[in-house]
Amino acid sequence: MRERPALTVAVTIDRHRAPTRWEDWRFSIVDVTIDEGQFGDQPLQLHDDGTVARFLHPGLRVELHTDEGEGYYLNLTSGQPSWFVWWRIDDDDPSMARPQMVTLSYHEAGRQLDAEERVDTVVLPPDVREELQAFTDAHYRPEPKRRVRPASFKAPDQR
């Protein structure tokens, strides 16, 4: 069995303390970085000034699947190709957010959003965009558009 093309990435998340009087914490996805093992395998706290803390979560695998070709195509043609980061607030520690998955498929991100999960985007770097474009070109062909005949040209019993 052939292994799927994949990248390992690290996700950087900022945590803001009490950004409003109604929120204890607010989280934002800051960056997605290629992880070649230099970050270890445990989350790292990069910064904490009492108001904003920054955490790096390494070791997330992004696999490319041939059956997700349309989702990759839609991402590439969206005007702003992106990483899609699905993340959750930790149930045991609400002051922490953890990435669950990173994908390049517009459809996969949509499925997570349909399930009412949190998904944020980070702009895709040019080198990863080129790799995704090459994979999509090799494995996906958009269906040709079919002309729909106007109802006025159809017989009344076919309308």
TrEMBL record:
<dbReference type="InterPro" id="IPR021736">
    <property type="entry name" value="DUF3305"/>
</dbReference>
<feature type="region of interest" description="Disordered">
    <location>
        <begin position="134"/>
        <end position="159"/>
    </location>
</feature>
<protein>
    <submittedName>
        <fullName>DUF3305 domain-containing protein</fullName>
    </submittedName>
</protein>
<dbReference type="Pfam" id="PF11749">
    <property type="entry name" value="DUF3305"/>
</dbReference>
<feature type="compositionally biased region" description="Basic and acidic residues">
    <location>
        <begin position="134"/>
        <end position="145"/>
    </location>
</feature>
